[in-house]
Amino acid sequence: xxxxxxxxxxxAEIQRLAQELGYDCSEGDILSRLKSLSEAxxxxxxxxxxxxxxxxxxxxxxxxxIETLEAGPRSEILGLVVSxxxxxxxxxxxxxxxxxxxxxxxxxxxxxxxxxxxREESHVFYRKIGFSKTKDQSVYAKEINLNEG
Length: 149
Prior knowledge:
This protein is of the alpha+beta class. 32% of the residues lie in helices and 25% in strands. It has helices spanning 11-20, 27-39, 91-105, 120-128; strands spanning 2-5, 43-49, 57-68, 72-82, 111-113.
């Protein structure tokens, strides 16, 4: 398997995998976001590919350096997707290891991840690889009209 930084040319495959988890985003959305993230010094996106099947992308992970007043600096996994056919084969664990290494490289001692309460299999996965549950929370969203002032 090959793990490397995501490239602009990976947008279609990243989008395909995101849709497997029900995320409604277009290839153009992913392309635009990859371009923006490639310029950000505090964020990374890694992909994992098979060495057979013409190097098919089978997973990706995104993380960022986050700093809050009350909790200080940490690394946060913002997205992790492994293709359906590649789950339960250690792919997610390899992607987490890359993020753990990146977290050390940028001098941080804490890595967190949030997981939808409905994704029970991911909760089992994270506990199995050493994460501890620290809280339950709700996420609220509000659309902002850019034309209001």
